[in-house]
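Supplementary Methods S3. Complex input for the adenosine-5'-diphosphate-bound model.
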Amino acid sequence: MRADRTTRLDRLIGAKGAKKFADQLGLATAGDLLGYFPRRYMARGELTPIQELPFDEDVTLVAQVVSSSNRRMATRKGSITEVLVSDRPGQTNGPSTLSLTFFNGFKASKQLTRGVVAMFSGRVSVYRGRLQLTNPIYDLLDPEDLDPEAAARLAGCPIPVYPATASVPSWTIAKAVGTLLGQIDLASLPEALPAPLREKYRLPPVADAYRMIHEPESDAAWRSAQRRFRFEEALVLQTALARRRAQHAALPSRPSPARRGGLLDAFDRGLPFELTAGQREVGDLLARELAASHPMNRLLQGEVGSGKTVVALRAMLQVVDDGGQAALLAPTEVLAAQHYASIRATLGPLVRDGLLGGADDLGVEVALLTGSQSAGEKKRSLLAAASGQAGIVVGTHALLSENVQFADLGLVVVDEQHRFGVEQRDALRAKSLATPHLLVMTATPIPRTVAMTVFGDLETSVLRELPRGRSPIATHTVGLVENPSWERRVWQRAREEVDAGRQVYVVCPTIGAGAGDEGDLEALDAATWGGTALAAPEQQAVSVADITAQLEAEPALEGVAIGVLHGRLDADAKTAAMRAFATGQTGVLVATTVVEVGVDVPNATLMVILDADRFGIAQLHQLRGRVGRGGHPGTCLLVTRLEPGHPSRERLAAVAASTDGFELAQKDLEFRREGDILGASQSGRRSTLRLLRVLRDAEVIASAREDAIEIVADDPDLERHPALASAIEDYLDPEREVFLERG
Ligand code: ADP
Ligand code: MG
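Predicted complex, serialized as C-alpha cells:
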C-alpha cells in the first residue's frame, strides 16, 4: 500500500493503535505523524553510568525503576514521590542505584512503576549525604534499551525520543513512523521552502529532512533536519505576518494631522509635569503616524506607571482636534471606570459635559460605556458616541456590541492587550468606514522576538524610563515553611502601614467560598500570562473568602477596616470597594488579581501576595507595581508555603531580585516549559510552535522575518510560492490563528 499525507493512521497501524494515537497524541493522519518530531535524541556515548555520577552537573542516564513510594509533605499539602532506579539489570541497591525526588510528581508516581525503563535528565544534588536528582525530566523507554546487546545493536545511530505517554511510549511511535516511512512517497511532498533560501542557509530538501529527523544516521543529520524545519516554521509564520501587515497597511484610514492651537496644545500647556524623553519621542512618532493616510498599528510597551496613558491621551486629543473620535478599551469595568475618572481629572478644564458646554469652545466630551450602567446612562453614552458629541469614549467590551455606533472613529486605544482578542479589535475597526488607527498598550514587557512572533503584525515602541519621583519597591520572599512565625509578622507589618496612614493590598489566588469551586476565573486568567502550571494541583490555594475571615479575627489588625474586591462582585460592589479603599475608609483590601491591571491608589504602600508561587513572574511584577506610586516607598511580600528548594520558588527569587521588567520577562521565558510562551499548553492544547523557540531561535526568526518581507514585497499574493501559501493555510488553522490574533 502507498500512503500519502492524508492517509488515516488506522490503515497504517491498525484501528486500535490509531485510536490511541488519536486520543493521546492528537495524531490522525500520516501527515500528522510525519510532523510529530522527536523531542530529542539519545546518544549512548553521552549517557552517564550511575556509578560515575558527578556532583552538581547536568546528567542524562538510562535506568530501570527498582521501587517507588509516595509520602505527604510534613508541613503543607502536597506529596513527594521517591523513585529508586538502577542502571545495572538486577542490582537493586549499592553504587548503581540512584534516588529521584519529585515534588507533587503525580504523573511520575503513576508512570515510574517498578520495572519501567526511562531516560532521566537533571542536575545532580546531595540530600542527606546521598546523590539524587530532583524533578528530573524523563522519557519512558523500551525495556530492551537497558539490555547491553540491544544497546550494541543500536550503537552509532542516535535514537529518537518522541514526546510520549504511558500507553503510547516513544518506541511505539518510532515503530509507527518506521512503517510510515516505508510506505510514503516522500518525494511527492510539497516543498514550502523556496530553493534560493534553501541554498542560502544550506538546508536539506523536504523529503530528505523527514527521513533525517525521524531516522537519523548521525547527529549531524537530525541537526540539519531540525534547522530546516525550524526555519520553515519561522518563514511560514513570518510570511503570514508580513502579509497581514502589508494588507493592513494598504487600507485607507482617516488622517488626523496635529493642529496648532487645539486641545492638544492646551493640554500640553496645562500638564503639571514634563514629559519624559521617551514619552516625547513616542508621542512624536504617534503624531506622525496619525497624520498618515494608512492606519497606525502600534504596540506600546511600558512598565506600570511609565506614563503610557498620558501618551495615549495625547494621541486621542490629536484625533479629536481634527474632528474625529477616539475609543479607549479597558479589560474590566473597574479599569474602564478608573480610566474614565482619571482621563477627566487629567483633562481638567478641558472636559466639556454634555450640552451644558464649557466656559469656552475648547473642550472634549468624555463618555463612559459599560455593561452595568443603567439604561438611561447607557442611552446617553450611546447617543454621544453616535452623534459625535463625545470625542472620547471609554469602555469595556460593551463598546464592541453591535448597537454602539460612532460618528467618526479615528483611533482605538486598547489597554492591556493580553485580555483582548483580535475579533474584538476587528469589531471596533468595523465601526468606521476608514480603518481607525490602533494603539495597543501593555505593561507586560515582551522580549523582541516574542513581539515579532506573537505581535508580529504590530510595530512596537517601548517606554523605558519611569517618570521621576517614583519610589523604589522592595520585594521579599516570605517562606512560611522555614519561618512559620513570619505569618504573624506579615500582619503586624500591615498594621504598621495602616497606623502610618497608608494602605495595604492582600492578594489571593482564588475567590473561594460561595463563588463556586469548579473554576476560578481569575486564577485561570493568571495562567494565561503567568503560568500556574507548576503549582501543585492538590494544594488548596488560599482564597479571598478565607483570608478575609482570618484577617477579621487577626489580633494584629484589630479595628482595621477590611475591604474585599474580586471579579465576581457586581459592578456596584466593585466600585464601592474601590472607592472605600481609594478614600482610605478601608485600610486593607483583600483581592484577587483584579488589582493587577491599572488600579491606582497612590496611598497604598504594602502588597502582600499569598501563595505567590501560584502566579507567574510577569504577573507578580505587574501586581507589585500597584504600590509605591504616591512617593512613599513600596514593599511587596511574596508569601509562599512551598518548601525551600521547590522549583517554583526560583520564580519568586527572580522577582525579588530584580525590578527590571524586561529582565524579568526574559527570565520568565527561560523558566517556562518550551511551548508555553504562546499560551497554548495551558488551555490543554498542544503547543502552537513545534520546533521554533522564540528565545533560543531569535536569530532564525529575525532572518526569516527579513526573507518573508522580501517574498511578500515581490509576490504579495504568493502566486509564485504556492507550496508556501498552502503551508501557511495548514499552519494557520483556526486554532493556531488564535495566537497570531492576540494583541
Ligand atoms: P501607565 O499607564 O503606564 O501605568 P500612567 O500614564 O497611568 O502610567 O502614569 C502613572 C502616573 O504617572 C500618573 O499619575 C501620571 O499622571 C504620572 N505621570 C505620567 N507621566 C509623567 C511624567 N512625565 N512625569 C511625572 N509624572 C508622570
Ligand atoms: Mg495604565
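Confidence is low (pLDDT under 50) at residues 515-538, 673-688, 734-743. The pocket of magnesium ion (ligand 2) is lined by residues 308-309, 598 (CB under 6 Å).
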